[in-house]
Amino acid sequence: MPKPPHDADHRRAVAPVICYPNETLPQPDLDLYQRARRFARQIASVLVSARDARCFDVPAGHFFRITSVDGPQVGDLNLWNANELSERFYSGKTRALHGAHLTTGERMWSSFPNLRPMATIVEDTLDWYGIDEFGGSVHDVIGTRCDPYTGNLLAGSQYHYCCHSNLTRAVSDHLGIPLEQAEAHVHDVLNVFMCTGFTRDTGQYFMKATPVRPGDYLEFFAEIDLLGALSACPGGDCSAEHSSDVAACYPLQVDIFAPDAGALDGWQQPQPSGYNRSHGLGVPS
User: Fold this and answer.
1) What is the model's pLDDT at position 167?
2) Which candidate, 86, 36, 79, places its Cα nearest to that of 225?
3) Comparing C-alpha atoms, which of 187, 212, 196, 241 is closest to residue 76?
4) What angle do CA 33, 273, 265 make, to 5 degrees?
């Protein structure tokens, strides 16, 4: 290990600068959303079995709620534009814009070239948790999803009920396409209810027992037509391990709500990014 330079402490002491100041981000009209939600009626419900995944559809201007049932359980959420699957949730840019964990008033942003809000969080019963003494918080956009490839790399395993595989099966079944095509659509997730952070000494991604309890929920407003897929993680509450047949696991419920006619008067779907996509080579035709 190289010897620290004479000014090492000075270099470490340089103050950080926020990479993406977000004061100019378009803000959701939470008052409008909450008024519309007050009298919205439930139109569909999907129960996601433990160690499995299900897909669901949410029209633009509707709400969907993910609820803990039976016991503490985390979930991995993918979102796509229901009309164009190449537009999907972009966890990295969402993290850069909002932070490592999401809560009320923050949004799930879509991939390039669209970069627009897909869903806005309108209620979070765990927003009281904040950031704990270990640097942990809930609903992260830093983890990728448990997957069979990493399991095989680290332990030589052939485990088929991790979130990546669960989501792949769900998309294959919902769209009626082969597994290899479905797998190409699966992407990095919002880890719903999962409590995570980075260790202060080694900077490693950690998880700890989720604070979620039956009846807790995370609720979203769909900014565009959405296809969603949710996996009830085989890690259960993620207090010990994931990709496991040993952990206690429980279902998750997804409910869809439709607002009354006229409840969203004045709201418009967000448009794709206004960047002209010339990339310095002239304006595209």
Assistant:
1) 98
2) 79
3) 187
4) 25
